[in-house]
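Entry for the shared binder. Reason: the reviewer on the internal report wants the predicted structure included alongside the sequence.
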Amino acid sequence: MDPELIGDCVHCGFCLPTCPTYVLWGEEMDSPRGRIHLMGQHVEGTPLTPEMAGHFDACLGCMACVTACPSGVRYDRLIEQTRAEVERVHRRPLRERALRALVFRLFPYPRRLRAMRLPLRLTEGARRRIAPRLERISPSLAAMAELAPPVPARVRLPRRVRAVGRRRATVGMLTGCVQGTFFPQVNAATARVLAMEGCEVVIPPAQGCCGALSLHSGRPEQAVRLAERTLTTFERAGVDTVVVNAAGCGSTMKEYGDLLGEERARTIRVVDLSEYLAELGPVARRHPLPVTVAYHDACHLAHAQGIRAQPRALLSAVPGLRLVEIAESSICCGSAGTYNLLQPEAARDLGDRKAERVLATGADLLVSANPGCALQIGSAVRRRGAGPIPVAHVAQVLDASLRGLDRAW
C-alpha cells in the first residue's frame, strides 16, 4: 500500500453517495474514505484483522469513487495493492479458501470454463428445484447456478475476417473468457460490425485470460502470467491494435503498463469497441431498428476507462432506436468480476436495485458492454418475475442495424 497515495485522500466525502456498499449499508468503513483510513492504519503498523479484510473484500472495485473524487485519489491502485496484501497476510477460513481456489482455477481458463457448459444445461425449473439445496451448501454456488444463462451454441470464429469493401484498418479482437464461453454471439457480432466498417479482423485461436479477474482480486503474480501470454499472442498475430468488447478486460489491458512495465506494454494499443468505432467513423449503412433501449454503464467502461458518450452516440445513430437512461446509472449492478460469487448477498441486493430501475424505464431492450453485467442484471430481472427483458451488447444492436435485421440477440 503506497503511503503517498493514501495521503492524497482529504476525507471530503464526495465519494460516499457514489459507493455501492455505502449506499447499501451507510457504514463509514464500507466507503472509499473509510477503507483508505483502514489502509493508513495498516501501513502505520496495525495488524490486518479479519474485520479489516472484510471491509476490503466488500469493495466492488467499481471505481465510481475515482470519477467522483475532486482530489484525484488513485483508489483503483490502492484497492489493488490492498487486496494483494490481504491475500498475502490474511488467513481465510477453509470454505473461503476452497471457493476462491475453485473460482481462480476455473474462470481465467477458457477451456475449463467451457467444461462447465454441460452441468449448466439445466432447465429453469430444474435450477429452481436445486437452488435451496445449493443455498444450504454455499450461497456462492447457488449464485453461480442462478447467474448462469441458457447455454448457447458454440460459435467457431475464423482466424481472420476480411473487411467488407475498402480495408480501412487491421485489428486484433479479444474473445475473452466469460464472453467467449457464455456470449459467443457477441464476439461474432463484434467481428461482423468491424468488418462491415472496413476492418480486417484478426482473431488468434489460442487466446487465454487477459488477467483482469486475477488482478482485481489480489493475485498479481497470476495476472502477470496471463497478461504476458495475452500480449505475446497478439504480437505473434502481427497486430498492433486490439479491440476489446468486455469492459473489465479492456480496463485491465489498458493498465498493462503498470503491471508489466511501459516498454513491454506499448507494443499493443488497446481500445474498447465503442471507442474504436467512434474514432473510426461510420461507413456502413444503418437500417432502421424500432426499439427502445436502456443503456447500462458498465463500471469499468464508464469509470475506469471514461467511456460514456461513445456507446450512446453509436446507439442513437441507429434510425428508429430510442435511447432512455437508467436512474442511478453510476451505481454498480453488483457483478464486479467475481464479486457476485464471492459476496453473493451484497451482489444480490445491488442486482435487485439495478433491475428495479431498469424495468422502470419501460425499455424493450437492455444494452450493456460487459458480460458480467449482462449475467447479473438478467438474473436479477428473472428473480423479480416481472417478465424477461432481453439483454444485448452494443455490438449486437449495431450488427442488427447494419444487416437490416429486426433483432440479433
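Summary line for the report: The chain has a mean pLDDT of 89.
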